[in-house]
Amino acid sequence: MSGSRGERLLAAFAGLDLPEAALELAADEPMARHTTLRLGGPADLWARPADTQALGLLLRRAWALGAPVTFVGGGSNLLVQDGGIRGVVVNLGRMTAVERPAPDEAPGAVVVAAGASTGKLLKAATEWELGGLEFLGGVPGSVGGGLVMNAGTYLGEFTSVVEEVRSVRVDGAAVLREHAACGFRYRASDLPADEVVVGARLRLRARPRAEIEADVAGLRARRREREPTGVFNNGSTFKNPPGDYAGRLIEAAGLKGRRIGGAVVSPVHANWLVVERGSGCRSAELLALIEAVREAVAVAHGVRLELEVKVIGEAR
Ligand SMILES: Cc1cc2nc3c(=O)[nH]c(=O)nc-3n(C[C@H](O)[C@H](O)[C@H](O)COP(=O)(O)OP(=O)(O)OC[C@H]3O[C@@H](n4cnc5c(N)ncnc54)[C@H](O)[C@@H]3O)c2cc1C
Asked: Which CATH class, in words, describes the domain spanning 98-211?
């Protein structure tokens, strides 16, 4: 059979019973286009369904073909390796509704699709004068990725506002999880890797717009002072170990400014391992820097840092 692996997989998705616009498919799509690090080799098949019907058909076809499926949101916490991702990479960036169902019956309830950006969700809540999401100020990415990561800041995290999460399994079956079954904890959850989160129901509380905006502005100002700009990044690279800060440990080990190729330990914030623009950096260089930092911190402090960033795909 001729063509690349991605082209052959694309051909296997022909003939789904859907209008063409309901499912965008691209073979051999460079993941560097879809990650904030601007790193990563090609996805065999990049798929963007417009709605849950298209998502269901896509997943069932992938299941029937035995093709692996990976879910990617805003790509703001991903380090995709240089060899790219085998199988189908699903992105819900076309499923972005944020709704406020019957405010009289369910005050504070907000229903959000997983593909909505955290910025869109925060903006809608602010306009409705609903507080609880102020912690999202300056946190990029999608709601789906935010739920899986239990993203947050010192102002809070997703767990504090989630009532239930809706997912679809790779075999196409729908799953509804109450908050308690989501296993939210520091920058992690029990939401399984073989399910795609499609949406959530949140519970917010009435709060004057001016108060929400003041908290968000304060968070953003604090971030501007402490975070590097002008470089590609994923935010924090490592989780903070219990009772300490990864950035403090890395800085104390003398690693600020350490580099491998175009990957650098930011001189501004030591827990941001960043990629210099125009450096031609590859994922392998950043991964090598991550390992070097881990090793040096273990030697200096006896602490093994755990990655916050998710490494996916294959090495070249
Ligand atoms: C400048 C910058 C600042 C940041 N600051 C913060 C911060 O303050 N706090 C913080 O917590 N994080 C921060 N981050 C990290 C990142 O923004 C968060 O982890 C974010 O929630 C990731 O969302 P995403 O949509 O980009 O997910 P992705 O990076 O695309 O994916 C993250 C994980 O979620 C999974 N996933 C994504 N969508 C779905 C879905 N629909 N269904 C199932 N699985 C899915 C992926 O498979 C992957 O395992 C920052 C990143 C950057 C670049």
From this structure: alpha beta
Q: Out of 86, 100, 177, 187, which one is annotated catalytic?
A: 187
Residue nearest atom 36 in ligand 1 by C-alpha distance? 145
Domain with CATH 3.90.78.10 in the chain: 228-312
Q: Which residues line ligand 1 (CB under 6 A)?
A: 36, 71-78, 92, 114, 139-142, 144-146, 148-149, 151-153, 187, 196-197, 233-235, 310
Tell me which residue has its CA closest to atom 46 in ligand 1: 72
d(CA 210, CA 131): 11
* 233-289 tens-digit pLDDT: 999 999 999 999 999 999 999 999 999 999 999 999 999 999 999 999 999 999 999
In the annotation, is 223 catalytic? no
Element (H, E) at 145: helix 143-149
Per the CB < 8 A criterion, the answer to whether 70 and 314 are in contact is no
CATH class of domain segment(s) 5-90: alpha beta
| Active-site position among 76, 117, 167, 236 | 236
Ligand 1 pocket test: pick from 76, 78, 154, 187 the residue with the most ligand atoms within 8 Å of its Cβ: 76
pTM of this prediction exceeds 0.70:
yes
What CATH topology corresponds to 228-312? 3.90.78
What number of other Cβ atoms are within 10 A of residue 15's Cβ? 8
Distance CA 51, CA 107 (A): 27
Q: What is the whole-number distance in angstroms between the Cα of residue 11 and the centre of ligand 1?
A: 31
- The vertex-13 CA angle with 7 and 17, nearest 5°, equals 150
Known catalytic residue at 308: yes
Is 134 considered catalytic here? no
**Whole-number Å distance between alpha carbons of 268 and 172:** 45
pLDDT per residue as tens digits for the range 44-65: 999 999 999 999 999 999 999 9
Start-end ranges of CATH 3.30.43.10 in the chain? 5-90
Angle, vertex CA 78, rays to CA 219 and CA 98, nearest 5: 60
Q: Which two tokens stand for residue 28?
A: 């051999």
